[in-house]
Each structure stands twice: as structure tokens, then as C-alpha cells.
Amino acid sequence: MARQTSSLPKPLFHLLVAMTAVVVPLVVSTAMLDPGVHPKFLAWAVLQALLWLAIAIVSARGRDTGAAGFFRSPLFLFAALYVIGALLSGLAAFNRQDWLYATLRTALFVLHTGAFVVIMIRMKEGVKPLAYAVAGAGLLVAIIGLLQWRGGILLLGADLVPPYGTMVNENLFATFLFLSLPLTLYGLVRLRAGRLFFAFAALVMIAAVIPTTTRTAWTALTLGTALTGVIAVIADRRLGAQRVRWIRMRKKHAALIVLALVLAGSAGFFFVVSDRLDDIEERTVIWRTTVDLAKKHPLIGVGTGNWVQHTNIENLRTRTTFSNWIRPHNDVLWVSSETGVLGLVGYLGMLLAALWLAWRVLRDGRDPARKTLALAVLYALVGYILIANGSFPRERIESTGYLAMYLALAFLTYRWEFPREREAGRSRAPRAAFAVFAALVAAFAAVVGYYRTAGEVHLQNAHSMMVHKQWAPAVSEIDEAQNPFYTSHPNGLPLEYMRGNAYYELNEYRAAIDDFNAAAKRNPKQIMTTWWLARSHLKIGEDKKAIAEFEQCLQWWPNNIFTLPGLAIAYFREGNYHEAFRYLARYRKIYDPEVHREGYDDLWRTLQQKVGTRADSIIAKDEEIRRGRRRRAHTDSAAGVSGNRTQPGR
Q1: Alpha carbon distance 2, 170 (integer Å)
Q2: Rounded Cα distance, 404 and 399, in Å
Q3: Please, are residues 407 and 354 in contact by the beta-carbon 8 Å criterion?
Q4: What are phi and psi of 27, to 5 degrees?
Q5: pLDDT digits (tens, 9 = 90+) for 254-266
Q6: Are residues 183 and 134 in contact, defined by beta-carbon separation less than 8 angstroms?
Q7: Closest CA to 119 of 409, 352, 379
């Protein structure tokens, strides 16, 4: 590639590369509840604010970055639509703080893509140091992960482990390594001076992905490799049907890497996947729930960052496991349910536009280096799409940063191969204004990131104290955790819910009730909040209110093993022995003494004496009532009736 003089300072390029490939992926944050999301977001936002501020200064001085075409391209227009969909979804959001945070992450992703284009548009030689940085980061993380596999050497000790250098977070670890692989393979094929380094890095990364048993990463390695190869062959116009006998790789090292990808990934997949079919079945339930959510809110969704607020009840009702499903494990469905049709079109449009740009370079390009880069980008995007359909890479800052990098490289490779004449006489004011706006957005995101990081630190302290039954100090830490930008635990439970639990253990039931009521207003579809509220009412003798809350729990989750005894006790106190017997009989039918602590034998004997010969008829009537409820629930579900929470007993 011909070397051209950059119109931007070289330090900006190195800061961009470091931010994407080194700093953000390796932010250490093992003390956090949600591994690394908030500290990475904070680092990401600060670095982007610095980048865009520098770009604004350069633009104001009249130096043309040559990136104006990007901001008029379909790629950017779809990205803007993605942000608009996220913004509009706030009209339906329960949790405004999480909506704001998730929307800012979407905006930073688009700004990251733009910064890449603006800084690299005049720096074609920048692909070389970028490939070295990406391969180096992937190699470092892979080595740490392999050394930690199955209790191996902990290089940095148990208390200081990079979140991706551990086999505990296999999905995160494997996804990051896969996204590091395409540029590593590009370096192996095109950069002769570092061929041994790139070959070693690629082999170590593949070796680290295989034992993770991460099915999405295996699929990306195997099926992604096959699809990319097929696309490359189809795109090559020089290959006619009569000439295709045996396609040889031009580089022997590349051929060996591809063979290792296909064989090792396939062997690992078939060796392990048979033991994890239950996970697949559970995910299909979550996917169906997400599809139903998208159908009920097709235009603007339920609010970015608010999927978990709407699905707790459905997740519990499935009774697949007690797993904490706080993401749908499918990014396409996730975007559709949270941002509606606008966000979905924007999200898919970005990916399809980038694929089309890479395809054009492969089909019509002439420069071998650029075609190789386009093939690497195509491999990354195909693999990312495969992963996104079974996992949640958009949740992870480094995965989002790498996607932004590959989207930008798709546009850059196309522009380098098919350059356009620069439009003369365009005002520099719009360029500078956009850069200033981007810097301000990133700076505001950094403020939000700081508060969320601080809140998460205090929340982690509160968790530790509650584990050790230090309830009063836990209340103080939860008070410190709550701020205008952080009001919920990562699993969607409001912080008032946690504080209510602490007050309950301190026997301060009135304070607990106040907090549980506040939590119910913040997230009206959370069954655990209602259950603890019912228990608190039961503790202070407010049996009618307890009954109303327990009944609401049963509407959301019939035959909940923890709710039925509470109802039996409350009705017994009210003197309604028939209802008390009905609920306790249902409880004892599903009660397992090896799993649950008690069968309430004394209460059961007392109720049997109270109802006498009417016991069988009460049980039969209860079964009839439950069958009727199941039929109504099925009819409501078919009709698309919303499951919004009523608030009895308030």
C-alpha cells in the first residue's frame, strides 16, 4: 500500500489502537459484580472524549480528515438509526437509569466506529501496527487463560486476574479471542517480518478457545471459516466453473491455520455439546419469551437496558432452572425487543452494509493486500453474527469495540480500493461541530460511567456484608451505592429490594415494607419483590395484605413452592381454614423433604381436623380452579394480553 502523509497527529492513531486492542480489553475489575462492564465503560468513554476533542481541534484548524464520505454512507446512517431507536425506546422504559446507560453505550459504539474512520482514512499503513496490537492482546489473554485452565498457575494471584484471563468466564474469554483472530491471520498472510509471531499467536488463541467449550465461539471458528471460504470463492471472478478443480491456499501457513480451525473446532464441539443440550433447551424458552416481548412492543420496544425488567416473571414461570437469565442470549432478538423495529433495522443494517463493502472489495478489488484485509473483515463479521445469535457480545465493551473496528475497516478498505475525489470547498464548521458534539457525549458518558462504577463498588461491599450477616453496615453501603445513575443490581432488582432484605433480617419490617413498595414501583414485574413484601406483612400480622401479595405471586408463578405455605399461614390466621387447607395441600403435593426445609406438619394436622371430611372435596375444587386458570392463561397468551402487574394490598 502506498504511504500517504497523515492529516492527523500520529499520537491520536496510537491512542485509538491502544484503546481498542489493549486498554479497554485488559481493564482489571474482578471486584465488580458484573465482570468489567462499568470500569471498561468508564475507560472507553474517557478515551473517546479525548480522541474526539483532539479531532475537533484538528477540524477547527481546517485540516481535512477525508472522512466526510463516511458520515454520508449507509453504514453511518444505519448506525444513526440504531442510536435513534435506542433513544426512542426510553418512552417505554421502566428503569430510566439503565436505559440511559445502555443508550450511551450504543452511542459510544457508533462514535468509536466514526473515530476509527476519521483517524485511519489517511493512514493505510496503520493496519500493520493495528494487527500487531490485536494479535499481541489476544496472545497475552490466551496465555493467561491456558495457564489458569483447570486450576493451573495463577500468574497474577487469585485477587488480581484480568476478566478474560480465566476459564470461569468462558463465553467472554472465547469471544474476545475469536475477534482477535481475523487480524492475526491477516498479519500471518500479509506481514512477512512478523509471520512467526502471528502464527504462534493464532495457534495459542485457537488452543485456548477449544477447552472453553463455548459453543458460539466454536461455531464461529468452524462454520464461520467455511462460510468465509465459500464467499471468497464465489466473489473471485477469475474462478470459472471449468477452472475450479482444487483451490490451493497461496500461503501454506494460512492453510494449516484454517485446517486447524475446522478440525479442532469441530472435534471439540461434537465431543462436548452432547452434555450441554439442557442449556440449549432453556435458551429456546428465553428466545420465545423475547420474541413475544418484541411482538407486544413492535415500534419502540420496552426500552434499551430494560429487557430484564420485563422478563423476570416469564423466566421464573418457565421453571427450566433457577439460573439468573438476565440476557436473552441472542443479540438480534435482544435489540428487537428493547428498541423495536427502528433499532433492529439500524443494527442489522450496519452489519449488512459492512458485509456488502467487504464483498465489493473481494469481488472487484485489484490490490491483494486490501482483498486479504477485506477477507479478514468478512471473517470477523460472519463470526460475530454467528456468536451474536447464541450469546450477547453487544453487552461486552471490548466485543463492541472490536465490532466498531471491523465495521470501520470494512468502510476503509472499500474507500482505499475505490477512492473518490475529495469534494472541494466544503465548510470545516460541520466537521468541527460534530467532533465537539461527540466529545461532549463521550464526556457525559464518562460521568455516568464514574457514578455507575462507584455504585457497583459499594454494592459489592454490601453483598460481602450480607453474606457475613452484617445487616446494618450493608444498609449503609446500599445507601452509598444508590445515585442518580445507578439504581438497580445487574440482575434488574432495584437497590431498594436489597435494602429491604437487610431491614427484614434486622426485624425492621416497616422499613422493609417501604423499600419493597419502592422496589415494586421501580420494577412492577419482579416476583421476588412481591414475595418479600408479602412475608414482611405476614411478620407484623397484616394478613390480608400478605394474602393479596402472595396471590399476586401465584398469578405470575403458579405452584411456587415458597408462596403456598405463606398463603396457608395467612388464611389460617384469618380463620379461613378451607383456603388454608387448599394451599397447604397443594404445597405438600410438590413438597420434597430432601430439598425443602419443612412440610408444616403441625399446621397440616390442625387443618385436617378443622376441615374434616370436606378435605377431598376441597382438593378437587382446587384442581378445578387451577385448570380454569391455566385455560385462561393460555387464552390470554394467544391473544397477546400483557402481563402488567396489578398492585393489590397497596
Answers
A1: 41
A2: 9
A3: yes
A4: -65, 125
A5: 555 556 666 655 5
A6: yes
A7: 409
